[in-house]
Design goal:
Elements lengths: L4 E6 L6 H6 L4 E3 L6 H10 L5 E6 L6 E14 L23 E16 H5 L18 E4 L1 H12 L2
Parallel strand pairs: 1-3
Antiparallel strand pairs: 1-6, 2-5, 3-4, 4-5
The protein binds a DNA duplex (12 and 12 nucleotides) through loops.
DNA sequence: GCCAACGTTGGC
DNA sequence: GCCAACGTTGGC
């Protein structure tokens, strides 16, 4: 199976590409997704070896800042059952988990961010979900051509 | 901080 | 099932 391609949003003040690079094994569980559409992707679609664009959102310079790779497929987000956890959700039942996550491993940090403005200005990227008006999906599919183009822009100093 | 867009909740 | 109210996201 060929890998699929995704874009994961994260607020850098919460979890940045540097946090991922500095994490043990440069790996983290992608916890805290509480949206059903994104949940379905995490649970059903995202596979081992899939490639991820790491996007910094809700910050001074929204941008794709690097890449990651999926190293564990969807499994229940157990934080939803921890009453003291920020991501606790009383409606998630361990017998029938409501929320899922995957594990991702750091792959690269771009030598420079590929900003939302640049993405918007690139014709070949015009169809990205990221650019859809009102789009807020924090886990979204990306075409291989789009993934490749963004990496290419990052390398084109 | 503002605000548009979206998702969820809950009364009816 | 409708829809108003509310909470969240995220660019600016």
């Amino acid at each position: 199976m060929n890998p699929s391609f995704w874009l994961f949003k994260s607020e850098p003040e919460t979890y940045s590409i540097d946090d991922l690079r500095n994490a043990p094994d440069q790996t983290t569980c992608w916890e805290g997704v509480r949206n059903y559409q994104a949940r379905n992707l995490l649970r059903d679609k995202i596979q081992l070896g899939d490639r991820v664009l790491f996007y910094h959102s809700a910050c001074a310079q929204p941008a794709v800042v690097g890449t990651a790779i999926v190293v564990r497929e969807g499994y229940p987000d157990h934080h939803a059952w921890d009453t003291r956890h920020h991501y606790f959700d009383p409606k998630s039942d361990p017998g029938n988990p409501r929320w899922f996550m995957v594990d991702v491993q750091f792959e690269s940090k771009f030598s420079r961010p590929v900003t939302l403005a640049e993405i918007r200005a690139t014709k070949a990227l015009a169809k990205m979900e990221l650019l859809r008006k009102g789009s807020r999906l924090s886990i979204q599919p990306v075409r291989k051509t789009e993934f490749d183009r963004i990496v290419q822009i990052a390398e084109r100093m």
